[in-house]
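User: My instructor asked us to take a sequence, write out its structure as tokens, and then describe one feature of it. I'm not sure where to start. Here is the sequence I was given:
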Amino acid sequence: MDLPNYTHKMRARLGRPRDYWRINTLHLRSTTTHSIPTQIKSHMQSAHNQPGHADRPIPFLDLPIELRNQIYEYALHIEKPVKLPRELYHAFTTAADRQRTIPKALGICLVNKQIHEESTYILYSKNVFAFFDSKAMLQFERSIGSRNRSHIRCLQIKLRGLQFCSTGVPSVIKNLSLRWADVLSRSQLQDVAKMIFVGNVLHVPSTGVELLPELAVAVIDFFARSNLDERVPALTLANFTAETEKMFPAHWSISQERYDE
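Assistant: Let's start with the prediction itself. The structure tokens for your sequence are:
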């Protein structure tokens, strides 16, 4: 399915498609401007039947920006982490991972340039973006461009393959961790305020799994480069040992969880 005609007009106006639309990674080509969830349609119809409903429609851009942002968030924010389609069949993903989770109403971002700029801020800043593949994270960063990179606030990194550590192949956990350490050192994300690490959800020892020091150092350096101002980095460690928390600065906001699928 092709994108609405507006896409081609904007490409001609801006010259370079990359400067206009950077959500192709989320498979926007499968959406349309009419992809409004049934629940939203129901609420809209209910509001139309209420006393005092305006006979004449109010142009969307005439609404206050605060109200428009609430509408964008309702349309574009989802509770589960956003999973990019190219990662759904990574070698270490589970059946739960392969359930595609992206916002249903992405078509709202295609209405015009102003709505595109306003809505993509909500799309990238209000959602958690999940990664299993370290290379995919760098490719995602490049594909969305610097403007959208600056909007991302929360990442979830799932360290798949850690189960092999308990079966006599410790090099797997080391290589996996070193790859992620390298990616975090090369990442251009500088506005992330929260990171969620999920380790070994397939076979989790009762005591949790260990995080390699090299990866912990990379996480510390990653936040050191971030534009956090006075904000304290937030780090969630899921399925890791209690001692893992001690590898990070004491003033960080750190929580530990058990993650099961």
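For the description part of your assignment, you could build on this observation: Residues 170-186 form the longest helix (17 residues). Try explaining in your own words what that tells you about the chain.
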